[in-house]
Amino acid sequence: MTVWNMILTYLIVFGVGGLMCAVAQLLIIKTKLTPARILVIFLLLGVVLEAFGIYKPINDFAQAGISVPIIGFGASLARGSIEMARQIGFIGAFAGGLVRTAFGVGVAVVASYAVSLIFSPKSK
Length: 124
Description:
124 residues
């Protein structure tokens, strides 16, 4: 990979991730949607994109710009549910998303606990 390819990749990742943040910010400013509802909308967008097979081509182009935010988490939940449903049937649809995302959720819980031990959070 040349330096220019690497720079182009970083620009694409930053551009796509920044565009998603800008859309979320516009939703916060222009609508009465709460940040929690916007988060759910983005999660469901990832599920829908994965269900219709649109997520993979976008991920091939945008890489971490689409896979790191909550849209990527939604797509992982959907992908896991689809795979497990194909392997073991209907009941697999309920377990597959949890199995596929368990490691990332576990790391987030442990990391947030470790940070809470180091810093003392205060409510506003």
